[in-house]
Amino acid sequence: MSGTYAVTMGDRGRLVVPAEVRAHAGLDAGVPLILLETPGGLVVMTREQARDHVRGQLAGADLVANLLAERRAAADREDAA
């Protein structure tokens, strides 16, 4: 399922997620959601979807090697000064 749904901001900033979307996504009352502000607009997702999104963005990245390279470069700049 993929679609566009019109919702209206209610009092106190509340949004009503349409029943069809709640049913398809398995959302029940009290399920924590993440509101992600992006350059393209707002995205609402579950914590699990947010986790998977971040993991996908970091896939293949060697964070330790990147950090070490940055630290070495900073140290080299300090030594040269």
TrEMBL record:
Residues covered by the SpoVT-AbrB domain: 4-50
PROSITE patterns: SPOVT_ABRB
Superkingdom in the source lineage: Bacteria
Molecular-function annotations in GO: DNA binding
Residue ranges of the TM segments: none
Organism of origin: Cellulomonas flavigena (strain ATCC 482 / DSM 20109 / BCRC 11376 / JCM 18109 / NBRC 3775 / NCIMB 8073 / NRS 134)
Protein name: Transcriptional regulator, AbrB family
Record's keyword terms, sorted: DNA-binding
